[in-house]
Specification:
five-stranded parallel β-sheet; 41% helix; alpha/beta; 637 residues; Isoleucyl-tRNA Synthetase, Domain 1; 19 strands; four-stranded antiparallel β-sheet
Length: 637
């Protein structure tokens, strides 16, 4: 058989977003991003060597959400400052990740310890690099101000309705909505201060912006290249293209003649859609659209803006943030949380490599042609990682290879989207472990098809209507029942018929052929992050093996039984390696009972039979009665 394999880099960096430091991790953090990122990381370690893979993430310590969360915590009796607050949540997050077997090389925090110190210094370096390259602009902007509380309002301290045409976001904040749409503060519809409940005033402030529209052509070329690569999901390309459209506004059809005759209205062309009540007015650039908006506002014409590239804000004036270097007589600003979280993976790599403030070891990874970066994110953040981050990396021109971005759709709670800021609160990830094992949940989340659509998470143990079949257990049963039964059957049978000694002989040709097909399919599916297809591949492979065992194990011929053991132990060997990234602890336990070394994980030997790893007469460790390699949760017995 031709063992042609897909390309894999020599080195890899994997990131899994950065949860906010205002709370513990909920089920969406784990099931929507971290499990998939960990599975892929563990696969890469087996495939290209653990020394060639770095898996990082960390707590996002800054931003208005943190301040708001801290204020609520203090009102409920929390004692300590903001650093204490984020540190407490950071430790809880890290503990939960460990409990789910998320194998991060570094889980840092943007405001804590050495990681925070390096991140702060690196953020200022990035700012100065962008400034010297002439891609930053100091602009006067409108900012919300709460007169009753005498404070500026940022981010989630303001809530209103998104001004972007067609947006269905549940929440819109100061200058971005929960779906990642960017707009100017004065465009937010019906703003309300979440601190006082009053309508805030608008004041003029100065802030630094990254000139993202300057990179429109380069971004278009990048998207065109990504579209040819099957590793980039279609949804990523579609959403990025939406932001690469020309600037536009939407107005009622009946107003088009009146608008065309308005004084000082810039040139535009009309995109007509008979199915909609509005027409789209498209402008050559953002300057002309802004002029048009002013004209429309002056004439009291209602409009909605379309998605497009806008300058990306770098700074704000909250106290809890990383200081922005003083430039052009402007000081006292801090970095907006989003841009500094986009370059956090670089500073976290520096921290992991013990690079210090001035070290350049990180460049051997991020500037090497041998390295590929993979970023697992939620679909809401495609604008930031796909558009803004790509623009920043292009502007830095540091020959940093652009990442492969893997966006997942929403993991719903039941049938609806749950979030800490909505009426439906998501269950904490740690609480799920009171009812299910981490193996069961990892199996369930990997098969959620989040690359294709939003999927409901319906844990029978937590939902009010908990009658009927528990869908969470379906995937877990593949290892807790099917795989577990096959492994136990192999061990108990070899102990009964051959004193636990692995028989000499060759694996049947049809078993070799089918197993090799599964291995090659698995690897290609990993390349496209098709975890749900991997589940089904292994599901069919294991169920067929169990059916074959059921038929062949009835033979009274000892030679047939020994050949069956050779064949089935080969399937166990293959499945143990293929399941290793998914449910690692149980697979390590199988390896320990096989009494073979860690070469079994190495994909250089992926097509080798079990006999390759052992000497003639090799005796397995005795499997005691009622021992499970993959256990159910105690509450399920």
């Amino acid at each position: 058989m031709n063992h042609t394999r897909p390309f894999h880099p020599k080195k890899a960096i994997v990131t899994a977003g950065m949860p906010y430091g205002d709370k513990e991790l909920h089920f969406g953090h784990i099931g929507g991003v971290f499990v998939q990122a960990d599975i892929y990381t563990r696969f890469l370690r087996d495939r290209i060597g653990s020394e060639n893979v770095i898996f990082i993430s960390g707590t996002d310590c800054f931003g208005s959400a943190i301040e708001t969360g801290y204020e609520k915590a203090v009102a409920n009796g929390f004692q300590g400052d903001l650093t204490d607050f984020v540190n407490e949540n950071y430790l809880k997050q890290k503990e939960t990740l460990d409990d789910y077997q998320i194998s991060l090389d570094l889980y840092g925090a943007s405001a804590l310890g050495e990681t925070g110190r390096i991140h702060s210094a690196f953020s200022q370096d990035i700012f100065m690099c962008l400034y010297k390259r002439g891609v930053l602009k100091l602009e006067e902007t409108i900012q919300f101000y709460d007169e009753e509380k005498d404070v500026f309002l940022n981010g989630r301290q303001v809530c209103g309705r998104c001004p972007i045409q067609g947006c269905k976001s549940e929440k819109a904040y100061a200058d971005e909505c929960s779906l990642g749409h960017q707009y100017k503060a004065d465009e937010l519809i019906n703003p309300i201060s979440v601190i006082s409940g009053n309508k805030p005033t608008r004041v003029t402030v100065k802030n630094w912006f990254f000139d993202l529209p300057l990179f429109e052509d380069q971004l278009n070329r990048v998207v065109n290249e990504w579209e040819k690569n099957p590793s980039y999901r279609k949804d990523l390309i579609v959403i990025m293209r939406e932001f690469l459209k020309k600037p536009s506004v939407y107005v009622k059809k009946e107003l088009i003649d009146e608008i065309s005759n308005m004084k000082d209205m810039p040139c535009f062309h009309v995109v007509e859609d008979e199915k909609k009540s509005s027409w789209e007015l498209v402008f050559e650039n953002l300057f002309y659209r802004d002029r048009a908006v002013s004209v429309l506002s002056k004439n009291k014409v209602r409009y909605r803006t379309g998605k497009t590239l806008v300058p990306f804000r770098l700074s704000g004036n909250v106290n809890w943030g990383i200081p922005v270097p003083e430039m052009e007589g402007v000081d006292g600003l801090t970095f907006w949380v989003w841009p500094e979280s986009l370059w956090a993976p670089i500073s976290f790599i520096k921290a992991y490599l013990n690079d210090g403030l001035d070290g350049r070891e990180w460049e051997k990874w991020l500037k090497s042609d041998e390295t590929q970066v993979y970023q697992f994110i939620g679909e809401d953040n495609i604008y930031f990682y796909g558009i803004a981050q790509t623009g920043l990396l292009l502007a830095l021109d540091e020959v940093i290879k652009l990442p492969i971005i893997i966006p997942n759709h929403h993991l719903l709670y039941g049938k609806k989207k749950a979030s800490s800021s909505s009426e439906i609160k998501p269950p904490k990830a740690a609480k799920l472990l009171d009812y299910y094992t981490s193996d069961q949940l990892r199996m369930h989340f990997m098969n959620a098809s989040l690359g294709e659509r939003s999927v409901g998470f319906e844990p029978k143990a937590l939902l009010e209507k908990n009658e009927g079949f528990d869908t969470v257990l379906y995937e877990g049963n593949l290892v807790c029942n099917i795989f577990n039964r096959l492994v136990r059957s192999c061990f108990y049978t070899i102990q009964k018929y051959n004193d636990g000694i692995y028989p000499e002989g060759n694996v049947s040709e049809q078993i070799i052929q089918k197993s090799n097909e599964v291995i090659l399919s698995y690897e290609c599916m990993m390349l496209e992050f098709s975890f749900e297809k991997i589940f089904e591949l292994l599901n069919v492979y294991l169920r067929n093996a169990n059916k074959e065992w059921s038929v062949r194990s009835k033979s009274d011929n000892i030679a047939d039984i020994l050949q069956l053991l050779i064949d089935m132990f080969h399937i166990v060997r293959v499945c143990t390696t293929l399941f290793h990234p998914i449910v690692p602890m149980g697979c390590e336990m199988i390896r320990n009972y096989l009494l073979i070394d860690e070469e079994i994980w190495d994909w250089e030997y992926i097509f080798k039979p079990l006999a390759y790893f052992v000497k003639p007469g090799h005796k397995f460790k005795l499997l005691e009665s009622r021992v499970d390699f993959f256990s159910k949760h105690p509450s399920q017995y």
